[in-house]
Amino acid sequence: MEACNDGPHNKLLEEVSEIAHSIKVLEDKLQEGNEALGDLLRNKQRLEKDIKVKKNSLLIDQQKCMSMRRSFPYNVVATRYY
Predict the structure, then answer these.
(1) Domain range holding 26?
(2) How far apart are CA 58 and CA 62, in angstroms?
(3) 22-76, pLDDT tens digit by residue?
(4) Residue 32 lies in a domain
(5) pTM of the predicted model as reported, rounded to 2 decimal places
(6) Can you tell me the distance from the alpha carbon of 48 to that of 54, in angstroms, rounded to the nearest whole number?
């Protein structure tokens, strides 16, 4: 059996180690990206729900409350205090 513990062999081992480290860093970044995506999707769903509630509130206001407000009697009285 040949002795393979020479310069090129050691260099290849270093490169394999660097590649393994790079893969680990990229996997960590991918995990962070997936977590950020999950957060963004949850925020999107929350915002869409809020928009839906607000649209419904505006619709109720326009259909039911606006007619009452238009016919609601009010007097504007300007008084001066001395």
Answers:
(1) 1-68
(2) 6
(3) 999 999 999 999 999 999 999 999 999 999 999 999 998 888 887 777 777 666 6
(4) yes
(5) 0.61
(6) 10
CA distance 29 to 23: 10
Distance between CA atoms of residues 69 and 18, nearest Å: 72
Domain membership of residue 48 (yes or no) is yes
Domain count, the chain: 1
Is residue 82, in this structure, part of any structural domain at all?
no
What does the alpha-carbon distance between residue 52 and residue 39 come to, in Å, rounded to a whole number?
Answer: 20
Inside any domain, residue 28: yes
Tokens of 24: 């680990």
The number of helix segments (H) and strand segments (E) in the chain equals 2, 0
